[in-house]
């Protein structure tokens, strides 16, 4: 298949390697000329993937029209905040060329201000005349390990359920296994919100908290991800799968995670701006903490970890105050909130 990967960052590059390995004709599009030249001339992308040699067949361009013209499948691999602008440009080119494509995105977050999931942003900026289906590919998949062909499993879901088998076919290989999932909302929400919890656990790690505390934040974090996700229409069981618990584990415990590492830098005393600049790659959990906190307030869903992290990141409360607020919250039962939501949702289903 002719495929263009839009975004020459860490994940775009590693996915382009998987697709090239699978014998597809792959072009990468990047806006940074120096990175494009490095991919074409040296077959490396060292800022994003250290010690990795790219296949010689993998070519990059900084010409978006050429990349869109090349492809039947577009893989959007840029940060959430860049998706809307890039999609507008893609749509304009598709209209000019009278062309229709399949889109899959891999961005993990919610758009700031609109609070939309990424597939909703893409849907708003395209039409059924130009785009066959809008899919997501998500799950525990650090770019650094994918590039080393380390066994990885992910899931794909889509708006119209038309493109998922194509996505499964083109990406699947002996080291990259793809499952189909019917729950687009759950897959996107799990991938977005786990970054908040990874940021929180990274901060705990940097502050030398113990394993008990980390396990508590991961577990209670999954609970609040499921609470908001279910309220937004996800199937609660999705949060037990690859794009929920799976991605939460890999992000909240790994030295590869940008969110986890950003948390460590905050604990070491760097400001948010300094930590993001030192990372040099996107830390999606920062904007998603803002979006999820505001969504939780408007939906009336309790998300104590997100709320306290929001205060820690943006209102400058101290770490002691943050932990006091979490530990000394009003006494409650372990399953309250989620159980009520589940009952509500099962009532809705049984009435259908
Ligand atoms: N790095 C990873 O292991 C994984 C990342 N993701 C998600 O993939 C998305 C991208 O992440 P990374 O590749 O890690 O980010 P990155 O920071 O490594 O790279 C982002 C790339 O997007 C480019 N970019 C930004 N705005 C652009 C625009 N308007 N037009 C064209 N290119 C633009 C940047 O120049 C850069 O090359 C994020 O939403 C992330 O959560 C998902 C799974 C794994
Ligand atoms: O989503 C990821 C792995 O599945 C990558 O997480 P980070 O953005 O925190 O590196």
Automatic annotation (TrEMBL):
One of its GO terms (biological process) is phospholipid biosynthetic process. NAD(+) binds at residues 7-12, 143, 258. Sn-glycerol 3-phosphate binds at residues 108, 139, 141, 194, 247, 257-259. The keyword Lipid metabolism applies. Residues 3-161 form the Glycerol-3-phosphate dehydrogenase NAD-dependent N-terminal domain. Substrate binds at residues 108, 258-259. One of its GO terms (molecular function) is NAD binding. Pathway: Membrane lipid metabolism; glycerophospholipid metabolism. InterPro entries: 6-PGluconate_DH-like_C_sf, 6PGD_dom2, G3P_DH_NAD-dep, G3P_DH_NAD-dep_C, G3P_DH_NAD-dep_N, NAD(P)-bd_dom_sf. Belongs to the NAD-dependent glycerol-3-phosphate dehydrogenase family. This is Glycerol-3-phosphate dehydrogenase [NAD(P)+]. Pfam families: NAD_Gly3P_dh_C, NAD_Gly3P_dh_N. NADPH binds at residues 10-11, 31, 48, 108, 143, 258, 282, 284. It is an enzyme of class 1 (oxidoreductase). Its EC number is 1.1.1.94. Its main location: cytoplasm. Keywords: Cytoplasm, Lipid biosynthesis, Lipid metabolism, NAD, NADP, Nucleotide-binding, Oxidoreductase, Phospholipid biosynthesis, Phospholipid metabolism. Transmembrane segments: none annotated. It is found in: Cytoplasm. Catalyzes the reduction of the glycolytic intermediate dihydroxyacetone phosphate (DHAP) to sn-glycerol 3-phosphate (G3P), the key precursor for phospholipid synthesis. It catalyses: sn-glycerol 3-phosphate + NAD(+) = dihydroxyacetone phosphate + NADH + H(+); sn-glycerol 3-phosphate + NADP(+) = dihydroxyacetone phosphate + NADPH + H(+). The keyword Nuclease does not apply. The active site is at 194 (proton acceptor). GO terms for cellular component: cytosol.
């Amino acid at each position: 298949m002719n495929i263009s990967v839009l975004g020459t960052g860490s994940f775009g590059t590693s996915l382009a390697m998987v697709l090239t390995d699978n014998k597809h004709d792959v072009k990468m599009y990047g806006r940074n000329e120096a990175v494009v030249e490095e991919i074409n001339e040296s077959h490396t992308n060292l800022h994003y993937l250290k010690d990795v040699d790219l296949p010689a067949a993998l070519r990059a361009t900084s010409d978006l029209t050429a990349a869109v013209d090349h492809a039947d499948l577009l893989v959007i691999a840029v940060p959430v905040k860049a998706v809307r602008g890039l999609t507008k440009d893609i749509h304009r080119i598709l209209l000019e060329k009278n062309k229709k494509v399949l889109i899959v995105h891999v961005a993990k977050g919610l758009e700031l201000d609109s609070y939309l999931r990424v597939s909703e942003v893409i849907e708003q900026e395209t039409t059924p005349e130009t785009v066959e289906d809008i899919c997501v590919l998500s799950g525990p998949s650090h770019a650094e390990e994918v590039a080393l062909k380390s066994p990885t499993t992910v899931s794909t879901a889509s708006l119209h359920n038309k493109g998922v088998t194509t996505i499964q076919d083109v990406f699947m290989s002996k080291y990259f296994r793809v499952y189909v999932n019917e729950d687009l909302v759950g897959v996107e929400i799990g991938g977005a919100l786990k970054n908040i919890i990874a940021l929180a656990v990274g901060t705990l790690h940097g502050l030398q908290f113990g394993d008990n505390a980390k396990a508590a934040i991961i577990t209670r974090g999954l609970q609040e991800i499921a609470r908001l996700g279910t309220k937004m229409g996800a199937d609660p069981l999705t949060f037990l799968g690859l794009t929920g618990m799976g991605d939460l584990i890999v992000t909240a415990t790994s030295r590869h995670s940008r969110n986890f590492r950003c948390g460590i830098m905050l604990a070491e005393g760097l400001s948010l701006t300094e930590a993001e600049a030192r990372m040099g790659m996107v830390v999606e959990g920062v904007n998603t903490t803002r979006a999820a906190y505001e969504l939780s307030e408007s939906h009336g869903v309790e998300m104590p970890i997100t709320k306290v992290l929001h205060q820690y990141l943006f209102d400058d409360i101290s770490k002691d105050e943050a932990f006091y607020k979490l530990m000394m919250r009003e006494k409650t039962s372990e399953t309250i909130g989620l159980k009520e939501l589940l009952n509500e949702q099962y009532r809705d289903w049984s009435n259908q």
